[in-house]
Amino acid sequence: MEFLTVNELSILRWVHILAMVYWLGGEWGVFQTSYNVTNRNLSLEERKRHMETAYRIDILARTGIVLLLPLGLHMGKLYGFVPLLEGAGIWWMWLFFAIWLAMTWTAFIKRETDIGITVTMLEEKLRYPLILGLFVVSFMAFQGAGPIESGEGNHWYPAKMALYAFALCIGLFLRLVMRRWTERFRILAQGPDAVEEAALEREIAQARISAYIYWITISGVCFLGAVKPF
């Protein structure tokens, strides 16, 4: 049984690293592609092609984001940090995140339709209680209470969880910007619109600033998981 547990941890850790790589790398790809999305010197069709490329890169990053939490919770259960997930709890947890991942991919596949935009908005709303819950549970863990059991020397786990929740906050804004790309390009397809162009450039400029904070936060999550400093 111990041998199986060690292998389970190793496999989960491997997938966790892959998810983190796709998250970080995907966000960089979207960041670079956004320059051409807002380039008024390009034709609208060319800009839409770059937007399509950004969406195709971003879906891997979104997949990584969604998978990181259940993978982390599963490993936390094996470490003894999340006893709540013993027994059937682990399967209910994975079912919840499977539904979340299905919503993410549905929003991607249907991104050019009203259904896709609706599912994207629902997926965004799902994050609000999740983010709040992660912050609350992390804070309680530092107080020695709540469902996360982490004593001295193991505070890196709730700290990593809180930093992940902060990254989700930034991700919400970046998701909002990308959703608005589709909406604004629908209007631009009807003809030149200076107001929509200005709004597009303003939002992406704000998103680029957020992206730098995003990368610092992601590197912080990596550091806590790899070094376990406290």
Q: What does the secondary structure layout of this molecule look like, with pairings?
A:
Elements: H1 2-37, H2 44-79, H3 89-109, H4 114-142, H5 156-188, H6 194-227
Key descriptive features of the protein:
6 helices; 230 residues; mainly alpha; 82% helix
How would you describe this structure to a colleague?
- By secondary structure, the protein is mostly helical.
- The protein has one domain.
- Helix content is 82%, strand content 0%.
- The chain is built from 6 helices and no strands.
- It has helices spanning 2-37, 44-79, 89-109, 114-142, 156-188, 194-227.
- The longest helix has 36 residues, at 2-37.
- It is elongated.
- The protein starts with a helix and ends with a helix.
Beta-strand segment tally: 0
Low-confidence stretches: none
Global mean pLDDT: 88
Distance between the termini: 29 Å
Helix content: over 70%
Proportion in β-strands: under 5%
Structural class: mainly alpha
Radius of gyration: 19 Å
The number of helical segments is 6
List the domain count as a whole number.
Answer: 1
Note the run of SSEs as H and E. HHHHHH
Q: Estimate the global geometry from the Cα principal axes.
A: elongated
Sheet having the most strands? none
Summarize the structure.
With about 230 residues, the chain is mainly α.
